[in-house]
Amino acid sequence: MSFLQVLAYDANKQLENISSFYVNHILPYVKSRSSYTVVAAAVVAYFSYRVRKMSEIPKNLQHIPAVPYWPFMRSLLSGESIDHRTRKYVLPVIANSPNGLYLRPIRRGWTVGVAGPATMKRLLLRADDFEKSPIFAKQDSLFNKFMGKENIVLLNGSVWKKHRLIANPAFHRSMPVKLFGRLCEKMMLRFEKEGDGLVNVDVANFLQRFTLDAIGLAAFGYDFEALDCPENEKVDTYNSIMTGIQNAVYFIFPILEKRFLWALPKRRDLYRKLDDMNEIFYSVIQHKRDTLASMKHSIEDTEKDLLTLMLEANEEAVDADHRLSDLELRDNLAIFFLAGHDTTSNALTFALYFLAANLPIQEKARKEVLDIMGDGDDIVFPTSTQCTDMKYVYMIMKETLRMCPPAVGTSPRRSNKDMDLVGTLIPEGTPLNADIYSMHHDPNIWQDPETFIPERFASNGESESKAGRGLAWAPFGNGARQCIGMNFSLAEQKVLLSMLLRKFTWELPEDSINKDGLKIGGGIGIMHAKDMHLKFTKRF
């Protein structure tokens, strides 16, 4: 009898679920790497020892309704999509919660999911009561090594304020709409040159490349050349890291990397690629600092990237205690990439899908763009003022972000004291997560939530009517800790959507897997569409 069989035979009824779970979901993943049976056995033994307590709801949280632990975890690890998981496990629980609070599993036990407008408002606006949790900063994993510990997302108090003060000038200025326009023009030209041309455009791939070039150039003047050469080493390194940090198994069980990295050669290779990426970050920081010193700050503000503006603000700090180190600058650049690349590309992919699936809405948006930018047979970049005037395009963007918020939740928080959260006692030290996706799809909050209706966000529309209930729409969070790159992302989306609407019409191909409804991919934290190909037709 093998070790695993003995373990399963001797385990009590509670551990039978654990063994089955590991055999069906964890072991196939580990064994697919090679035949490390000793490692697999050690993992099972460790997991069996630790997870028994993890799956039990603490006594001081048993008054909050909870999703079923094992089915929910199985859904995460099997790669089931967020929409299916939410419909099966979360929305039924929220329906019986008076304020949208519920319990769901996390890495080391349970967290309070926040999915009601009133509780969401309290969580996001009372930053002093709900600090950012250090859970990510304490874990040894690829995700944490990429994200770092000294950045604007994870820090609290005076240290966070120092980072925010340095970063503010970079994000409170005119957005680089001309840069976005140039990259969009380049992307549209490549539509016809790659693959099957306009009849079958892999929009998710193109938008991922577009936003990577945009964040690289706008963040620190670095050209990944993703649009020109999608298979170059820089792009491969970055994409491999992004795929690796979103792997559900390693995200939920960081112990695999901490204790067994020696037995996972492909995972070790990702760590080496991250070292290469860090070399790029640090070399660019030094190059920018040298350039600023030699040019004596003679660069025009409109041509400055985010890193340049942060370095200038850093030098202007009153004393050394208020300046950021190179490590802190690097960690913040990594956060800008994590928050501003895949999230924006996925938001644009979803927007193009909804416009393809709702042709009257696409035509209405096109009419607005032509009224503002004019028609013609030449490529035109929208100005910042014109982007502001695109009210209906903005409604489309907001409805897209309601239905498919690319980041399905915010970074974890924890309560600083015992408190009453809209009628529910939250003990001190309790972890909480804003569940944006579930709130956006709750039929008790939004009418017909699975239907794409941009007019929800019109003046005096459904969205405005909910203002008195709290925050019912929060794809970027809210309050002092709201996503600092929100305006950057929205400007990028407006430029691209307006230019595509002026140049093309598009629809779903007859053989599209999304023809009968949007198919969402699995993953942790970030939503993406499955196999999103569209058929484009030139207007000129």
Automatic annotation (TrEMBL):
Its cofactor is heme. The keyword Transmembrane does not apply. SUPFAM superfamilies: Cytochrome P450. It comes from the Eukaryota. One of its GO terms (molecular function) is heme binding. Heme binds at residue 483. PROSITE patterns: CYTOCHROME_P450 (PS00086). Keywords: Heme, Iron, Metal-binding, Monooxygenase, Oxidoreductase. Belongs to the cytochrome P450 family. This is Cytochrome P450.
